[in-house]
Amino acid sequence: MNRDALLFRQIHPNFIDRGGRVTSQAFKPSPKDNSRLSVYDGDQITAEESWRHYVHELGYASTGVMAVTVAECHDHDLRPEHDPDPFPEHAVIDFGGLSKKCIRSTAKKLAACANGRGWQYGPVG
Questions:
Q1: Phi and psi torsions of 120, nearest 5°
Q2: Neighbour count for residue 79 (Cβ, 10 Å)
Q3: Total domains in the fold of the chain
Q4: Do residues 112 and 68 lie in contact, with contact meaning Cβ atoms separated by under 8 Å?
Q5: pLDDT in tens, 52-61
Q6: Which of 54, 64, 104, 107 is the most exposed, having the fewest neighbouring CB atoms within 10 Å of its CB?
Q7: What is the pLDDT of residues 3-50, one digit of tens each?
Q8: What is the C-alpha separation between 18 and 121, in angstroms, rounded?
């Protein structure tokens, strides 16, 4: 993957704090994710197109799209990978091998990167 590529993360409305910043929870894989955080590959799809796909085709809730880069993932010892199943633009950020404490702190660092970059699409609603 291109180091400068944006990895688009859909932001659930519950993952925005009262100040309007996205919380680290948006960048922390849940137990059902097997330590792999789902994102869209920005080299293959725009932020707006990813939001439309997520909301209108998959039927999930998203307030908008934030992003981290492949390089930022590498900087925090994460492995972004293409994962074209279930759809071609799908990718994952692999947190495998990190302790729960390290996952929490790394999710905070990714959220800080994304908040610093700002909304790539939205917020909507």
A1: -95, -25
A2: 15
A3: 1
A4: no
A5: 999 999 999 9
A6: 104
A7: 999 999 999 999 999 989 999 999 999 888 999 999 999 999 999 999
A8: 19
Rg (CA), the chain: 13
Give the position of tokens 């495998």.
Answer: 96
Any domain includes 125: no
123 in any annotated domain: no
Question: Is position 102 within any domain?
Answer: yes
Q: Which of 98, 58, 92 is nearest to 76 (CA)?
A: 98
Residue type, 39: V
CB 93 within 8 Å of CB 9: no
Residue that has been written with the tokens 């492995």 in this structure: 79
Structural domain boundaries enclosing 95: 6-117
The answer to whether the CB of 10 falls within 8 A of the CB of 50 is: yes
Cα–Cα nearest to 7, from 93, 88, 86: 93
Give the CA distances from residue 34 to residues 30, 96, 118, in Å, rounded to whole numbers and listed in that order: 7, 8, 27
124 domain residue, yes or no: no
